[in-house]
Write a structure and sequence with these properties.
Shape: elongated
Structural class: mainly alpha
Distance between the termini: 36 Å
Number of domains: 1
Order of helices and strands: HHH
């Protein structure tokens, strides 16, 4: 009469990891938006790294959709 171990699908773990990954990336984007809001009016050079980071975020999402990581039924 030990502990009952139930098996979970790997999809639950993958979804949780993807959520944490994208949540952390959004946590980095929000401070950039507030800190550089006034700075962007005079210095557009900071826009490059911000767009690069956002582009990596969007490409990662497209890659996950293409690989079917977000599909539950196969």
């Amino acid at each position: 009469e030990g502990l009952l171990h139930t098996r979970f699908s790997v999809k639950f773990y993958i979804t949780a990891m993807l959520f944490i990954l994208f949540d952390i990336e959004v946590v980095f984007l929000i401070p950039w938006a507030f800190i550089y809001r006034d700075f962007l009016a005079n210095h557009m050079s900071i826009l490059g790294p911000i767009l690069f980071f956002f582009g990596v975020l969007v490409l990662g999402l497209f890659y996950e959709v293409k690989k079917g990581a977000l599909e539950w039924e196969k």
